[in-house]
Write a structure and sequence with these properties.
171 residues; 3 strands; three-stranded antiparallel beta sheet
Length: 171
């Protein structure tokens, strides 16, 4: 379920004016099923799942494979930054609600390349650690460190090893 999408994540991906314009237009065409200001999540928006699927399909048809790959890498970087922010805030409610977004992103295997999938899996593994889902976190992080080492993503490798070490200590 990718409902209750945090506006703060959109603000990480692009500038505030673009986010405001995007929200204005999806409201204008009645594409938002819900907009709320839940205290623990901040402002969120929700789109019907069918609308999300149709929009994704349409947008992908407009992009070349290269542009699509670049866009997905940028989304992945925004998700990583947002993950780092909510982990730093130690806000378990936000972490719990963000799990569904990470899992939904990873269901698009056909669109994601190995580094992007691995980066999001590592973020999800880190979130699982904070939520106490050690078995799930360990499985994801162990598979990620092999890929990070292969592709020489040192910063990601070290971060994943840190969380994996914390899981080993806890279990």
């Amino acid at each position: 379920d990718s409902q209750n999408f945090p506006r703060s994540l959109l603000n990480i991906y692009t500038d505030k004016i673009s986010v405001d314009n995007f929200i204005y237009n999806i409201k204008k065409y009645s594409l938002i099923t819900n907009e709320s200001s839940q205290s623990f999540l901040g402002q969120t928006i929700s789109l019907h799942r069918d609308t999300q699927a149709i929009t994704l399909e349409y947008l992908l048809s407009l992009m070349s494979k290269k542009k699509r790959s670049r866009m997905l890498q940028n989304i992945s970087k925004a998700l990583e930054k947002y993950t780092d922010e909510i982990i730093a805030s130690e806000d378990l409610s936000k972490l719990q609600s963000f799990v569904t977004h990470c899992e939904a992103f990873l269901t698009h295997e056909d669109l994601l390349n190995t580094p992007t999938t691995n980066a999001m899996s590592a973020d999800l593994g880190s979130i699982y650690y904070f939520l106490g889902y050690y078995k799930e976190g360990k499985k994801l992080l162990e598979s990620c460190i092999v890929i990070f080492d292969k592709y020489k993503y040192r910063e990601r490798l070290f971060k994943s090893l840190m969380y994996l070490g914390k899981i080993y200590v806890e279990t």
